[in-house]
Amino acid sequence: MAGWAKHLAGIKGVVLDISGVLYDSGGEGGGVPIPGSIEAVKKIKTSGLKLRFCTNETQATREKFVEKLQRLGFDIAVNEVTAPAPAACLILKERNLRPHLLVHDDVIPEFADVDKANPNCVVVGDAADNFSYKNLNETFRVLIGLENPVLISLGKGRYYKETDGLKLDVGVYMKALEYACDIQAEVVGKPAKMFFQSALREMGVEPHQAIMIGDDIVNDVGGAQQCGMKALQVRTGKYRPCDEQHPKVKADGYVDNLAEAVDVILKQLCE
Ligand SMILES: [Mg+2]
């Protein structure tokens, strides 16, 4: 039994990151499942533990993203997923914000009901090929021209891993806009505390009763711990061995993959 497992007493809910934990994205079919993950999700669902998926994915609408995961074989539904774009739409409406969008084409439908005329804020997501100089500069001009520049960033990841290698994530471009305009972005998505809290609320579980499993030492593990949750890092996806010596974040445990994490958690529940 892994040493960290003894800290699992009272765990009632599991929060799963998706990319790098369930599957690696990229390639023709949109990605490949990480071995053992499809079964691991099924095991959590039959265990009686509450389950929530918590992703920073913003290259597709939540519906399309879930469809892809279902096609790959995962037992997952749209109403089980906490994602940045729907959360950002709530904030925009609450604060009467009209965004200029610098996002991936495939996530634009998520903002269909949001007024985008005469923008009074900027929303930046993982825009991938839309992060051209032209688009970044246009976004910069909108932002610096605002009386009160509001920059909302859908996550702040540095990089993620696709099947053909590491890719720059939204955080890099968020930082560029922050630097250019001398402002601080508001992050919607991991590691923001509010984002984890909304996932926990959906599960009806208190932070100390929940465990996060992710491949990002800062945004998944660090963010969840800041919120009062336990957190494991998987050695899949963007994991690098140096993560285990991270100067600021120490996971409650490190596991080879989701399958191992779930086996240890379930074994502990039976003790
Ligand atoms: Mg991930």
UniProtKB/TrEMBL annotation:
Cellular compartment(s): Cytoplasm; Nucleus
GO cellular component labels: cytosol; nucleus
Pfam assignment, any one: Hydrolase_6
GO MF entry, a single one: inorganic diphosphate phosphatase activity
Required cofactor names: Mg(2+)
Keyword match Iron: no
UniProtKB keywords: Cytoplasm, Hydrolase, Magnesium, Metal-binding, Nucleus
Enzyme Commission number, as recorded: 3.6.1.1
UniProt keyword annotation of S-adenosyl-L-methionine present: no
Catalytic activity: diphosphate + H2O = 2 phosphate + H(+)
Family assignment from sequence similarity: Belongs to the HAD-like hydrolase superfamily.
PANTHER family (UniProt xref): 4-NITROPHENYLPHOSPHATASE-RELATED, PHOSPHOLYSINE PHOSPHOHISTIDINE INORGANIC PYROPHOSPHATE PHOSPHATASE
Primary role: Phosphatase that hydrolyzes imidodiphosphate, 3-phosphohistidine and 6-phospholysine. Has broad substrate specificity and can also hydrolyze inorganic diphosphate, but with lower efficiency.
Protein name, entry field: Phospholysine phosphohistidine inorganic pyrophosphate phosphatase
Organism: Eublepharis macularius
